[in-house]
Amino acid sequence: MDTPLREPTFLILTALATGPMHGYGLIGEVAALSGNRVSLRPGTLYGALDRLVDAGLVEVDGEEVVDGRLRRYYRLSPGGEATLSAETERLRRNVEAATSRLSARTRAARPITPRTAGGLA
Amino acid sequence: MDTPLREPTFLILTALATGPMHGYGLIGEVAALSGNRVSLRPGTLYGALDRLVDAGLVEVDGEEVVDGRLRRYYRLSPGGEATLSAETERLRRNVEAATSRLSARTRAARPITPRTAGGLA
DNA sequence: CAGCAATATATCGGATACGAAGGTATGTCG
DNA sequence: CGACATACCTTCGTATCCGATATATTGCTG
What we know:
2 copies of one chain form a homodimer.
Chain A: H1 7-16, E1 21-22, H2 23-33, H3 42-55, E2 58-66, E3 69-76, H4 78-108
Antiparallel strand pairs in A: 1-3, 2-3
Helix pairs in contact in A: 1-2, 2-3
Chain A binds a DNA duplex through α2, α3 and β3.
Domain Transcription regulator PadR N-terminal (chains A, B): 12-85
Protein name (chains A, B): PadR family transcriptional regulator
Region (Disordered) (chains A, B): 98-121
């Protein structure tokens, strides 16, 4: 499980953390929690779901027929919850590293970059 | 620029936020700021650098010869700094969304998920 | 001095995920 | 009936990433 999740996959797991949801509903939920910036395409969604089910991170929760249309619900597995948790921690560390370096940059207003300060051993 | 950065590319920009650095040095720096979890391979590094230079996010800062070996320094461009900043914000929002949903899950110990609560319009 | 490790560059091929587009089916609205 | 929205799924092309490999120079070791 050392393959880092990409954004669409991460958001799918995040959406499912709220509770079981069907495929088409995930498209709307992911759009909502990303502020309408990420719009999942069916190809991305079902490809990702197949992979996640195959990896045991997501399970099929059941099916339902509403107005003659099939709804297949997916649910986060315990392993999926653990993976999402670990991925979140990883991202949090990256965000912190980038934030501190960016703020240091702003504070210093980018001086002449002392290249003679010794390499990073 | 709506293509989200993958982790290796994000970490390269983060490393360069500290100051100019040469390719091989980036491998060590990225390893360091990721807690030795991400080890950049040459193929990833130079492929990413070419793409970043091509996209105007990174610029060649100059070259230096140390012990007969060429060192090509790269530097974060203003556009690269803006992109890194925007990407960091995006990740921060994703981390926050995942964190709140995961903690809500833990608190509720996963009840019966009210599926009849109405679809997300 | 021959061989190997380390530094530092670069390239190639395979694997995988993602995105765009299209396809099928059902129910509702005009 | 035709158009549209919901809801499922598939195929194809592209981009990114990783592993392996190649090249060149210095320095250490046998």
